[in-house]
């Protein structure tokens, strides 16, 4: 058994190497466990870390557990809520872009003024020498 539902609100991958070699190529274009975990993270799945008696408990051998609030045995209607997280530029408001552009313009102007003052100081130093 490479994969198990034990509690009904998470799943376990018991042997990552064998899982990657035998299961992943059947459903993905790769056999890379790290890529699979990355995909899980993009859809909101999280690795379960067990904490007991104030310390981390080391998982048995190669057992890795993942869970998602909408991935529950017998609750198929919740699966539609599992969506890929999207980060896009469209989330930035035009006003924010305008403010950022104004800030950059001000910084560039300030730099030009400072350069002018530096050049003036340099010439005064040369004249004093």
TrEMBL record:
Keywords: Activator, DNA-binding, Nucleus, Stress response, Transcription, Transcription regulation
InterPro entries: HSF_DNA-bd, WH-like_DNA-bd_sf, WH_DNA-bd_sf
Entry keyword Transport: no
GO cellular component, one term: cytoplasm
GO MF entries: core promoter sequence-specific DNA binding; DNA-binding transcription factor activity; protein homodimerization activity
SMART domains named in the record: HSF
Highest taxon in the source lineage: Eukaryota
Record bears the keyword Cytoplasm: no
Residues of the HSF-type DNA-binding domain: 24-48
Compartments (UniProt record): Nucleus
Matches recorded under SUPFAM superfamilies: Winged helix' DNA-binding domain (SSF46785)
Pfam families tied to this protein: HSF_DNA-bind
Transmembrane regions: none
Family per record: Belongs to the HSF family.
Gene assigned in the entry: Hsf1
Name this polypeptide is given: HSF1 protein
């Amino acid at each position: 058994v490479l994969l198990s539902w034990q509690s009904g609100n998470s799943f376990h991958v018991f042997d990552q190497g064998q899982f990657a070699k035998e299961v992943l190529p059947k459903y993905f274009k790769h056999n890379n466990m790290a890529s699979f975990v990355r995909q899980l993270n993009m859809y909101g799945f999280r690795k379960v870390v067990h904490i007991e008696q104030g310390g981390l408990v080391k998982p048995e051998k190669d057992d890795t557990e993942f869970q998602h609030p909408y991935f529950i045995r017998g609750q198929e209607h919740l699966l539609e809520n599992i969506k890929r997280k999207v980060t896009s530029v469209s989330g930035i408001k035009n006003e924010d872009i305008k403010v950022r552009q104004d800030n950059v313009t001000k910084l560039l102007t300030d730099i030009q003024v400072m350069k002018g003052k530096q050049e003036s100081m340099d010439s005064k130093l040369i004249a004093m020498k």
